[in-house]
């Protein structure tokens, strides 16, 4: 609780990231006092009550922040969330995603009153019981180790920590996923700043997309009512091909735009599936924002960003 | 190869530990040039060709040592190998066993000619596909994460790294396992330095024991002929109850000694099994030292240590 004892306190790591900015706004609107831990001060100052700049691998600093803020809830979004960067520096990816999470859990467990902690993993994890284990990239390895460590820590130290594994999050805010890049491209193309077609590597690969605002609502549901030690998969009820995504953007802007299919081999050979979400639906969450709405909001945001930066 | 190109080079971490001292002697006798990486210089100076003091979590130093020695083989024994210590400092246990191994693998992969690397895990790991995952202690968590990381790294970076999971290693050299503690107790009791009975918590718990010298021979077999990315379980073909172990010591010294059964609840609720060793037996290894011989050698060593220290 905060100083006057009226609002629960939530500590959000990675608060300046794509999901983090949405999460800060969401939990503040839900009546919580938001302590934002971030690496880029300017992006989360306006949506949080307190803002602390900290790298998640600074163990002592994490402990100090935890002790000073005494949160009721912790939402852990910080980490390296990019497959390509994980190939360039796999050790840094492990340190950010696995070691950083361990430091956070250890700091949470050191409080006299343990906060409820939600660790956000990824649907891109791999099966750790495979023989041999075959992650597709260092990012996948780091996210599965993060999940395993978190659930095991919950079991070993009786810490109310749980794990969410979202699929591809989309929506306003400038993500670096396919939809975010496509929206930014179209905003530039609309203003005549590029004539090159947008490049995709396949039209048929199918993925599961969820609006980031729905995901943040799921995180609140889990922080309030999820089961300690459990893993919750989060997504929407549809798979969409890259071709479907391109069509949805064309529909949102009311005309076709240029793209080219490079027909490269898939980077993630494992096909995505619609996640089983029974346990999460049972505690009251469901995806609410239609895909077309996500795309419209994304385009409006991309145009606004573009006109600000040009 | 070493300077004159005659001997393959093996880098052994944890060289001053119980297994490490045996490993240094074994690989030197097998004609290799031994580079010992250890934390206690005095214990491995006499069994190695080069000795370097280094903590396994010093990333840059590990890289420097790897580049300077250009090993053909790496045997990774360093780490925190004690269940009780893992409860006292679970973060340090993770850093030593998981992060340290990652630094070693990364350093090995950075060489132009990758060495063959054997990571020594533990039979006390847990099932990472359990829902929820339930390691028995932080040590168990760290060893399973170490194993997963090593095999995944081998897959991702095409590094010839493999994993051995030995059961309880026994033999001369002052281990801190049950047999080592029992031998040290008997040596003191024989000299009249204690009248207290030796304490055990159960007589019926059954474990698998392997002579450390057989284990080191298995490590050589695996380094020479094991399959990259694979996991090899190592042990003997018998399970022995604690009661059997006490009887074997009484037989070795020719008379009964005092002990008391505290009948405490077991610390490791999972019963040990005889490991499946088919793939290792297929490439030419088998346990050769009988249990009674291990115990006799252990007692002779404990008496010699005791008379030196008294």
Number of domains of chain A: 2
Give the proportion of residues in helices of chain A: 40-55%
Oligomeric composition of the shown chains: homodimer
N/C terminus separation of chain A: 43 Å
Shape of chain A: globular
How large is the share of residues in beta strands of chain A?
Answer: 15-25%
Mean pLDDT of chain A: 93
CATH topology of the largest domain in chain A: Rossmann fold
Which architecture of the largest domain in chain A per CATH?
3-Layer(aba) Sandwich
Q: Give the H and E element order of chain A.
A: EHEHEHEHHEHEEHEEHEEHEHH
Structural class of chain A: alpha/beta
CATH superfamily of the largest domain in chain A: NAD(P)-binding Rossmann-like Domain
Continuous helix count of chain A? 11
Low-confidence spans of chain A: none
Q: Main beta sheet of chain A: strand number and arrangement?
A: 7 strands, parallel
What strand order characterises the main sheet of chain A? Answer: 3-2-1-4-5-6-10
Largest interface: A-B, 36 and 36 residues
- Rg of chain A is 20 Å
Q: CATH class of the largest domain in chain A, please?
A: Alpha Beta
């Amino acid at each position: 609780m905060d100083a006057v004892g009226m609002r629960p306190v939530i500590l959000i790591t990675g608060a300046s990231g794509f999901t983090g900015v949405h999460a800060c706004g969401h939990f503040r609107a839900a009546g919580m006092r938001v302590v934002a831990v971030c690496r880029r001060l300017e992006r989360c100052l306006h949506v949080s009550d307190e803002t602390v700049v900290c790298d998640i691998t600074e163990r002592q600093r994490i402990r100090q922040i935890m002790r000073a803020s005494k949160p009721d809830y912790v939402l852990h979004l910080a980490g390296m969330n990019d497959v390509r960067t994980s190939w360039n520096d796999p050790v840094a990816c492990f340190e950010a995603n696995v070691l950083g999470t361990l430091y956070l859990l250890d700091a949470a467990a050191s409080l006299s009153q343990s906060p409820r902690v939600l660790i956000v993993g990824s649907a891109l994890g791999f099966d750790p019981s495979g023989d041999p284990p075959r992650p597709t990239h260092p990012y996948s390895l780091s996210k599965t180790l993060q999940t395993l460590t978190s659930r095991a820590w919950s079991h070993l130290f009786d810490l109310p920590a749980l794990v969410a594994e979202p699929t591809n999050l989309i929506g306003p805010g400038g993500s670096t996923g396919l939809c975010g890049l496509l929206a930014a491209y179209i905003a530039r193309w609309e203003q005549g700043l590029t004539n090159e077609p947008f490049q995709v590597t396949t039209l048929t690969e199918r993925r599961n997309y969820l609006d980031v605002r729905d995901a943040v609502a799921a995180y609140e549901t889990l922080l309030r009512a999820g089961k300690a030690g459990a893993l919750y998969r989060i997504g929407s009820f549809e798979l969409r091909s890259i071709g479907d995504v391109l069509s949805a953007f064309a529909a949102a802007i009311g005309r076709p735009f240029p793209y080219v299919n490079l027909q490269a081999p898939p980077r993630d050979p494992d096909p995505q599936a619609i996640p089983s979400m029974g346990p999460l639906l049972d505690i009251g969450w469901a995806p609410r924002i239609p895909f077309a709405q996500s795309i419209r909001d994304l385009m409006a945001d991309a145009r606004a960003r573009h006109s600000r930066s040009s």
